[in-house]
Amino acid sequence: MLAMPTTPRRALHTRSAITYYRCESRRESRHGRRSRPPVWIGAFALLATVLRRPSGQKTTAPRAAGPSRREIHGKRRGLGSTLIAWLGVLATVVAAAIVVAMLLPLPTGGAKQASSSRKSATRRSSSIAVAPAMSRTSQRTARPLRTSASAASLGSSATEEGQSDPELRRQQTQRAPAGVVPTAAGIRKAEAWLAQRTGFLSMAVIDSSGHLHGWNDTRLFISASVPKAMMMVAYLRSHPTITADMQSVITKMIEYSDNDCADIVYAAIGGDDALEQVAQLAHMTHFSADVGFWGNCSIDAADQARFFYRMDKLIPKGHRAFARSILSHVVRFSYGIPEIARPLGWTVFFKGGWRTGLHGPWLIHQVARLERGRATISIAILTDGELTDDYGEQTLAGVTQRLLGN
Prior knowledge:
Layout: H1 9-25, H2 39-51, H3 69-73, H4 79-103, H5 110-123, H6 148-154, H7 166-170, H8 184-195, E1 200-206, E2 212-215, E3 221-222, H9 228-238, H10 244-255, H11 259-269, H12 272-281, E4 298-299, H13 301-314, H14 317-327, H15 337-341, E5 347-356, E6 362-372, E7 375-386, H16 389-404
Antiparallel strand pairs: 1-2, 1-7, 3-4, 5-6, 6-7
């Protein structure tokens, strides 16, 4: 009987793979050129060579009967074959790394932004019910109002599409950076104060860093006397020189809120078109002039805060001192914002308005530009449905106290 080979089966398998690769590496193609087997075969052969014997030991098992490797190949494997084998291993590793990198999910900043948006949306709900159940969401109607009747019907409602509008999301309350006025804590306190007050209320603040913060800041209201400041700007922009009589008319319109003087200025500027032009220059988004009467314009707090914040740039330099003088010496309606801010060292340029409310006994508004040192802020507080004029004045003062930290 023939003696069975004593070479371990593992050694036979690995030798067969190596022998096959070496033979394939030197096989002549039909075109007379040397061809190489696939690279993965070389990688497998190299791996088999490494694993077929423990480190530091040599296989001493007798070789099976047959031609020797030298007889098969004619010479020992050269440096080129070894290099190809190593390159095969390297290619395999690189390919595996690429596949793993493609399968693993990559972290992005979207999750953080989504979390921030969810926190902001949670903080500002989407209800417009009368306070104290009033929400903190800026309300926006589908289009500007044109008449007092339409303002009355839409002043307490908002379209659902406005709640997802990019303009609305951009105007959501932002956390004020450190060192600006008012602080984030002051804004939160003012919002909490408004939430517990009765009436249809709205507030917008542009802080000293130029960021807009709002609470129902796109809710629309009847303007009352607030547009008188816009009419003053429109007249000063359209008249390089002003007569003494006209200066007196404008002064009475602003300092005493004289309605007859307002009618004169309204006619002099050309009516609604001039107001719309000023609104566009101030980057207002929801202002709408009433046909033929300045007191029934549709306004919101955000637009009025933008207007007073940019007012100096809208007034020609030659008239700027005159305008600042009369706006800082308003005789009527000096409660609310100026009453609280002036003792704190702020110079206050403001305009107010009041009339019978559409949703209750009183409608009381105040919009102001405040300057102290190098800091400039603007505040707009619009109210409707106030039970008494004293109650409305307390609402204005309470908001200002909390914003300015008093």
